[in-house]
Specification:
By secondary structure, the chain is an alpha/beta fold. The chain has helices at residues 5-12, 16-23, 31-44, 50-57, 78-92, 114-117, 132-140, 164-177, 193-208, 227-240, 252-264, 298-313; strands spanning 62-68, 96-102, 123-127, 145-148, 158-162, 183-188, 218-222, 246-249, 274-279, 292-295, 322-325, 328-330. The protein has twelve helices and twelve strands. The strands form two sheets. It has a six-stranded parallel beta sheet, covered by helices on one side. Strand 8, helix 11 and strand 9 (274-279) form a beta-alpha-beta unit.
């Protein structure tokens, strides 16, 4: 039988209320009484329950985690790994993480997650971009929010961001270093600041090396960044410009779609076209050839989100922190030296 708070009170010879106050470090409790309670807890191996702590602290100990349905797929596991990183870090801070996904497109009548409606979370982590009208409904609930891989000046919230600009620049500089001069960009959902910043990094690298930044090398009108849209974008690109020798895809999902199209058309990778992605999802190591990419530390993003949330929840003032997580090049087999004409 597990010991109860009543057993602790009896062992320490204090009231149940005093035990609760001591557990939460209430200043009304003397250090001597607190030590007596803590000693009883240790001797009895007592673990306070969430509801018991919540009665005193007015906190649930729960963190909500929200992302769109198309970001929570086995085939596109980027955000899934961010969630796992958040879950692992939450254990270190004694939080529970409650996951929910929202449909896309949103139904006309917006329904907030039950854990929000019932006020069963202390804060919310939002991974990736969610519809603006949904976000406004969440903000109306006045619950602390931490963004992951998304930031918007209209929303003064803490955020964990990827160094997308330098990641995009590194990707293109890798291709330039291999002798490529006609380098294309394939993307989608350019309203997402992460994708836009990768594109800006792409342009910056070309300009810095005095290479042409040509609109005929951009395909970024796809609705989102799936494999299917990568395939479609590659088809559009090569119909427009057959002189491309290298492609930077804004994420690995699109890069794998590009790879599929090139291989179907008998275009050798990297002998005829070099290809680089962004994210370093597991599938990038399973393609043939393996995909050169910019690696994002996904577990670290999730962990940082929980650490930021913990700071937010334990701060007496409103804070808005931004943490930028670095990236690195993973040089595999899909990129190679440009062939001289």
């Amino acid at each position: 039988m597990h010991p109860t708070i009543k057993d602790v009170a009896k062992r320490a010879n204090v009231s149940i209320a005093t035990v609760s106050l001591a557990i939460h470090g209430n200043k009304r409790i003397s250090e001597e009484t607190k030590q007596k309670v803590m000693r009883a807890i240790k001797e009895l191996k007592y673990h306070p329950s969430r509801p018991a702590r919540g009665l005193v602290s007015q906190k649930t100990g729960n963190i909500g985690f929200i992302l769109t349905e198309n970001h929570f797929l086995r085939s596109e596991p980027f955000y899934t790994q961010i969630f796992l990183g958040a879950e692992l870090e939450a254990h270190n801070h004694d939080y529970y993480v409650l996951l929910t996904t929202i449909p896309e497109p949103l139904p006309k009548k917006i329904k907030l997650p039950r854990f929000v409606a019932e006020r069963n979370v202390d804060g919310i982590v939002i991974a990736g971009k969610i519809p603006e009208n949904y976000l406004k409904h969440l903000e109306d609930e006045d619950i602390p929010i931490v963004f992951v891989d998304y930031s918007n000046e209209e929303h003064d919230c803490s955020a964990v961001l990827i160094d997308n600009f330098n990641g995009g620049k590194t990707a293109v500089e890798h291709l330039i270093g291999l002798g490529h001069k006609n380098i294309a960009f394939i993307g989608g959902d350019m309203n997402h600041p992460s994708i836009q910043n990768r594109f800006n990094g792409y342009k910056s690298a070309l300009e810095q090396h005095q290479l042409p930044v040509s609109a005929k090398n951009f395909i970024y009108d796809e609705v989102n960044t799936t494999r299917e849209n990568g395939y479609i974008a590659a088809k559009k690109l090569l119909a427009r410009n057959k002189s491309v020798t290298a492609i930077f895809a804004c994420n690995d999902a699109m890069a794998i779609g590009v790879m599929q199209y090139l291989q179907e058309k008998g275009i050798s990778i990297p002998d005829q076209i070099s290809l680089i992605g962004f994210d370093d999802v597991e599938a990038a190591t399973m393609t043939t050839p393996t995909l050169t990419t910019i690696a994002v530390p996904k577990f670290e993003l999730g962990g940082e989100a929980i650490r930021l949330m913990d700071i937010t929840l334990n701060s007496s003032t409103i804070i808005s922190n931004k943490v930028v997580v670095g990236v690195e090049l993973k040089n595999r087999n899909s990129t190679g030296a440009a062939k001289s004409c």
